[in-house]
Amino acid sequence: MKRVKDRVTLEIIRLGINGEGVGYLKGQVVFVDGALPGEKVIVEATEIKDKYAKAKVVKFINRSNERIKGKCSIYSKCGGCTLQHYQYQAQLDAKREIVKESFEKYLGKKHEIPEIKSVLGMDNPWQYRNKAQIPLAEKNNKVIVGLYRAGSNRIIEMKQCMVHHPELDKAIQGIKEIVEELKIPIYDPKKKKGQLRNIVARISFATREMQVVLVTFTNELKESKELVKRIAMQFPKVVSIAQNINPAITPLVMGDKTKILWGKERLVETIGEIKYSLSPRSFFQLNPTQMEVLYNEVSKAAQLTGEESVLDAYCGAGTLSLWLAKEASEVRGVEVVADAIKDAKYNAELNNITNVHFSVGNVERVLPKWVKKGYRADVIVVDPPRTGLGEKLLTAINDAKPKKIIYVSCNPATLAKDCKHLIEKGYNIEYVQPVDMFPQTSHVESVALLTLKCVNNT
Asked: TRAM domain: from which residue to which, for each copy (predicted)?
């Protein structure tokens, strides 16, 4: 394909990391939104680059037997659930292939490809999200709530999201109606005027209680007392209502300033035996059901006996640190975000866990200092951002030489790339266990277990 609008017939070979179909045309990679492996399609080029092209389906010559009708009326528009048209088991198989292909690419013929286990999926791959962040807009003098159209800042009106817990959608629709009745000014991003930008709702799967955050562009929130009163009356399960002020022109939903308007300061969620107390801005896994599956896999990989020292290198609010503390001698958590460490310490106290210690800082700087003072971690757990570990942290981990590294990853490419580095520094990859944290999307989480070679030889 040489020009935009060129049309060709293409066979889709596999699924790409963003859920698009991937085909090849005389060595050129072609990404096709909405196409599935095994399908033959006529496509039209929408974008041409040196090494690849993007295209859209004009006509299906034959369709995959695993193609189904998506449950959501707007899923193909919002860009969130890119795989609703794919049978769930096929989604899981495709995600395993994405992880496998990443290791084949980065390890190549030089290193043995590790065992990539079958993806751990959900019995019910719907209504799993515990949090909704919904923008508001005005259309034809009415307030609408919805999701952004893929690749734009235009809001598609939505009454129900098939991956949200249903109580979240009910609350958001009810709050929207109250906002409309009270004539609260809606923020207009073009004019940079108005007040209410987003409604954020989070539900505890353990208690079914909800936390609501009203995100505003200014400190002012018209009719705030009446708004809070009506929300509390209409939704008895809402136990906390807060206002977050975000005056920045940014894709980030929340700003730095939050105040409680009514009710509790925190929402409590329980995963396994651990209670987690969540402030309005606390980071927490969006899928509590699979969070427990993921953390059990980390525990299984660690095989702690109660004698080990564990380092949680990107501990966030300490959720995984607290999970592992019950099986370890000591757990140290390091996180660069100070507010997250406050949450971590709060939750350690809430659960009466005394063998976990949290520090604010960049782990690539903190770890070498601890090692110089004689600290030795038997197990290092890492759960980095999509960009991976980075050279400095890889060096720090190599110098620390833990017996085990447990790498939790949301990006198969950087996972494989970092594992290659660790292999070359003396580690074996025992296996990779993918976990489906976000059904109906192309995202896949993985837990990789690496062991120091000299340990295996003793």
From this structure: 1-59
